[in-house]
């Protein structure tokens, strides 16, 4: 049988997204968490509009980062429990491809809703149009990186019980570069400085993690399943 | 032949006579370094006697990074050749790396208070050492929750390798971040050249810290080997002779 990687990739991704969308709780919870965390800050800090606008990049980015890493825990868990993961592991397709399908479906079901809701949150935090565009662009480049890197940790901890906080603890240090550049771009946009080089760096992060993360995730899944 | 040398049994046998020698080397370097550093080296013309914390701070920071590098090499060997001894070395090194990193942060902050006037600044170097501590803690957390030995060894190897790919990226992004966000930063302690009478004790202390790491990691590895190989005949024989 001829192996058609692209076809397999699209089919499995479609299948995964369908499963995630059917269990609404899975993808709505991180989204609500994201909105709630952002809304906590004006309540805690006060409603000074300029202060809020200054803090907005950091607040929104940290909330998006936390929502992503928390939702990451589910990515391989159900499949592992039901034995579907073992089935994927014995299939003839390379593990990195299968890891990439899981990551893609996670990003489409969790990352995209985050991006779509973020202009609303930006308005709540008093961002202007230019900054809202920067917010969407940085999240568009940044959330795939969050999903890709997080998947390595999710695969490593797939066999571990009661790991609610283990995964964030393990992966948050590796999220720091993308956080720095994501918020950096927004701050520089606010100050009307040239940002194109920083977008290029974010693009480099996407490409770099796109190369390494599926490979390492695949290896990690193999280790977890064989153990 | 090479593989035999890397077996836990061979490691245990070959390191038995080494332990006292390493201990002696450590004591020699440490006693010279601490004595010369505290009493013989002249006081700094700007910082007075306050600079003497360098004899703990720099060696611990250096050793903390050296340990992570060692762990990364061990992780690659473990993943590629499935060698047991490197996995043991990696798992025994991690807590020591975390302690040395913490020591570097604490001594650095004690040094920073009189010299910079603050316990902590979000300087690039300080921040990346803090992140190194977080990475160590993540490693230790992952290690402590996986029960199966082989799964644990290989999973921690992967996270170590992710760390070594990321460390330069984290470091440089933090450097850029602190130049992006900070205004005129407090200038680093200007010490373009260091007097030889200050340098020799420092080198001795660095050697002492490395020897201390080697010594403790060796003892920890020997214990770990006995624990892991507890079912084998040679461990029973060792236990009888104790």
What is the topological layout?
The complex is a heterodimer of chains A (227) and B (242).
Chain A: H1 5-22, H2 24-45, H3 49-72, H4 74-82, H5 84-90, H6 95-124, H7 129-156, H8 166-190, H9 196-226
Chain B: H1 2-5, H2 8-15, H3 18-40, H4 54-81, H5 84-116, H6 124-145, H7 149-181, H8 196-228, H9 233-241
Helix pairs in contact in B: 3-8, 4-5, 4-7, 4-8, 5-6, 5-7, 5-8, 6-7
Structural commentary:
- The complex is a heterodimer of chains A (227) and B (242).
- With 227 residues, chain A is mainly alpha-helical.
- Helix content of chain A is 85%, strand content 0%.
- In chain A, helix 6 runs antiparallel to helix 7 and helix 6 crosses helix 9.
- The longest helix of chain A is centred in the last third of the chain and has 31 residues.
- Chain A is globular, with a radius of gyration of 18 Å.
- The relative contact order of chain A is 0.15.
- The longest helix of chain B has 33 residues.
- Chain B has one domain.
- About 5% of the residues of chain B have low confidence.
- Chain B starts with a helix and ends with a helix.
- Chain B has 9 helices and no strands.
- Chains A and B meet through helix 7, helix 8 and helix 9 of A and helix 6 and helix 7 of B.
